[in-house]
Amino acid sequence: MPVKQSSSGSVPRTDDNDDGGVGTGLFIDDFEINGTTGWEHDIGVQQVYIGFPTTVGSLVDAWVDIRNYGNNDETVNALWWMGGAAQAPALLIGETILQGDSIVVYLDHDPGDENDGFYPEEEGETTIRVSTIVPDGDDFPDNNESVNIPILVLPDQEYEFGHDNRIAAYTTSRFDTGEGPMTLITGHTDFEEYPDLPFMLEHVRVLWDGAQDADADIRLHIYLAADDGTILSELHTQDFTVTTGMTNPNWMEMDVSAADIVVTEPISIWIELLEEGDSPFPHIVFPVEQIAEGHHFQYDGTTMDASGSDWMIRVVGGFMYGVEDDDASLPQEFVLHEPYPNPFNPSVSLAFEIPSQGMVSVRIYDILGKEVAVLADNAQYQPGYHTLGWNASDMPSGIYFARVEANGRTHMKKLILLK
Q1: Sheet strands (E) in 274-397
Q2: Which helix (DSSP H) or strand (DSSP E) does residue 259 occupy?
Q3: Are the CB atoms for 77 and 86 separated by under 8 Å?
Q4: Cis peptide leading into 12, omega within 30 of 0?
Q5: Where are the beta strands (DSSP E) in 162-230?
Q6: What is the pLDDT of residues 116-136, one digit of tens each?
Q7: Alpha-carbon distance 159 to 154, whole Å?
Q8: Is the pTM of this model over 0.85?
Q9: Mean per-residue pLDDT for 138-150?
Q10: Tell me, what's the pLDDT at 313?
Q11: Distances from the Cα of 395 to the Cαs of 344, 347, 363, 372, in angstroms?
């Protein structure tokens, strides 16, 4: 029943329990409303998930959640489609879903093997959708079929990683000059096909609002990051211009291959808006439903706030590995690469390779030989390529030295901090 607001402006509250007691004063007693859907027979596609990456010959984690919204148990058939062609075998044939229940089914060309998911066979842009059929009839057929979900199938050995459900829906205008969306990318660090191998970043892809009517300048920032998104150091920055031809349904492709960014750790991608008109463009596109909490943020160069939306920001690259034998992917010797950037302000990245498992120490010294930072203190590292960052925001300009010790050997590199 309607609740009337008191003259003092206070709002009635429940008595915060369900013991059936009587409310007094501004408290009202608890109540419960029970109801049922108006549909006797209603099967719907609740969610379709297509994981990253989608590469020719690589397993794609893909599934659908089909739910019985009606008031009766139902017998259900379900198909999945790629590029308009029905895929075999069917997802469901004569499967019973109880009233109020749901069933999760993998999109799989070979359900009998040990892998759940499918292997793309042809590269290029395509779509995936799922449809359901209720032989006895469905009172609400509008939710029997998913939307067409766009995917980009890349050639063998090229991989795209992102954290969104692939369905472009809304745009936002919340960003002013100096602000922008940030996405934490971790997919390359836990990709089962190539665990622990270095990932070389080639492109950053972003989907902008198609209503943009003028060019806009942006600055791309790529950071080495912790698992929770904390920025460790800046790996690269590069300016781009967003033109009207780089907006939805087209993706903007930002080539960063010349920067030679190779990582084994998470990276954060921040897109900073450099100019603002009457309405700040470009507007970034995001899906209806968030599925990747903890991966998307709003950032202004100082404060990083969690976003309630999954930004459609992705990275494309390849894994560095050998092709002749199983050990070819491992470094053959201990190497400390040139710091990047150098000179730097205030963050620098230190990349090193070790050929075997061992204890590693990474320390920073000033020009007088005084230790000013410890990035790794006799920590155990697996063989391969590793990157550490040093943020020198609290240090004065000058010359510093990075000293890396691994398995009894030592390398040093000069760092120049210019503020």
Answers
A1: 285-286, 296-299, 304-306, 313-319, 335-336, 347-354, 358-366, 371-381, 384-391
A2: none
A3: no
A4: no
A5: 170-171, 180-185, 199-206, 216-225
A6: 999 999 999 999 999 999 998
A7: 7
A8: no
A9: 94
A10: 97
A11: 12, 11, 15, 9
